[in-house]
Amino acid sequence: MNRHIIRPRTVAEATTALAEVKARDGHALIVGGGTIAIPQLTRQEVQPTDIVDLGDLDVPRIWRDESAVHLGPAATYQSLIDTPYAERRTPLLHLMAKGITGGIQIRSQGTIAGSLVCARPYSDAPAVLVAHAAHVTVASAHGTRTMPAERFLTAPERPDLRPTELVTEIILPHRPEAVAHGYYKLKFAESSWPVVTCACTVLADGTAELTLGGVRGVPWKIRVSSGVSNSPQELRDVIDDHVSALTEDDFWQDIRADSSYRRRVAATVAARALRQAAARLPSSGTEQS
C-alpha cells in the first residue's frame, strides 16, 4: 500500500491535513513518539492511507503558568522527568514517568498524549492523568474543545477524539489542596504491561483520592474519608464494597488477567499506593511532593 507521509509544522497544517484525508475517505494514523503506532503498523493491525507525523510540530513539549502545567503532543516521559518543576507541580505524573515500563527507550520516545489517546486500560498514563484532574484540548479545522480527561476516556481504546481531531494540549491544574501522592502498579514481570495500577492523592483534610487503572475499562476514581484512609482494613473494606456493587461486565479483562483477579487485587494495590502517599505526608518528615 502506498501511504502518504504528512509532516505538519503547525497545528493548523495538521488539522487541515486530517480534514483533507477524511474528505477523500482516507484513514489517517497520527504518530507522536511512535512506540505504539509503529508496532501496530508492523503487525498490520492498522491500515492507514496517510500517516501524520507530529515530530516537526511547532508546539512546546512542556510549559507552565500560575494555574497549570501544560503538555504538548510531543511531551515524552523523559522530557517531563528532565523538567525542573515537574516533580513539584505534577508529582503523580513524575512518579509514574520514572517507573514507566520499557526503560530509557520508551521514556525518551513515548509521548504522554499518545498513551492517553490509545486509552488502554493497562497503560500507566490514563489513570494518572485522571488522578491529576487533567483536562484535554483537541483541535480540528473547525476549532478546539477542552474536556476533563475522565470524560475524554469514554471506553477501552475509545477516546472522545474524532478522525479530524488531534490532541494539542494536556492541562494539569495546580492543586494546592493535594499534600501527598503515591503510585503503585502490579505487574507480573519487569518488562510487562501493568495489570492494575493506583494513583493516590491525599488532600489537606485527610481525604484520599484513589484512581485505579486496569480494574474497569476506564480509570476509576474512589474517594475515601480521612478515617478510612488511616485504617488499612477499613480501606480494604471500602474498596471491596465498591467492587461488590458492580457487575462482572463492569470489569476489564485481557490476556494478562481476568476480571475476577483484578477485582481481588484492587484493594491491595490501592492500599499500597496510599501507603506510599502517607510516607510522603509533610508530617512524616519527608519532603512534600
From TrEMBL:
Keyword Transcription regulation: no
Coiled-coil spans in chain: none
SUPFAM superfamilies: CO dehydrogenase flavoprotein C-terminal domain-like, FAD-binding/transporter-associated domain-like
Keyword Cytoplasm annotated: no
Recorded superkingdom: Bacteria
SMART domains: CO_deh_flav_C
Broadest EC class assigned to this enzyme: oxidoreductase
Keyword list, A-Z: FAD, Flavoprotein, Oxidoreductase
PROSITE patterns noted in UniProt: FAD_PCMH
GO molecular function: anaerobic carbon-monoxide dehydrogenase activity; FAD binding
Start and end residues of each FAD-binding PCMH-type domain: 1-177
EC number: 1.2.7.4
Any Pfam family the entry gives: FAD_binding_5
Protein name: Carbon monoxide dehydrogenase medium chain
Organism the protein comes from: Streptomyces malaysiensis
